[in-house]
Specification:
single chain, 2 helices
């Protein structure tokens, strides 16, 4: 299955959101962390992943 550049960017964005949601749920359930703290940490994960992505030239480590 071939994806164009726009579709790849949308898929990466979706996967970042899934990762942030998964971390939020895992912290709230398994980590015995207060839900407020897990939501805050989950909200930080997606932008942090985008910032650290070396292939993303819009924002982050390799931004122009």
């Amino acid at each position: 299955m071939k994806l164009n550049k726009k579709s790849k960017a949308a898929l990466k964005s979706y996967l970042r959101a899934v990762a942030a949601s998964g971390i939020t749920v895992a912290l709230a359930i398994a980590g015995n962390v207060k839900p407020e703290y897990s939501v805050l940490l989950g909200a930080v994960v997606a932008p942090l992943i985008k910032y650290l992505d070396p292939k993303d030239t819009d924002l982050g480590v390799n931004a122009e």
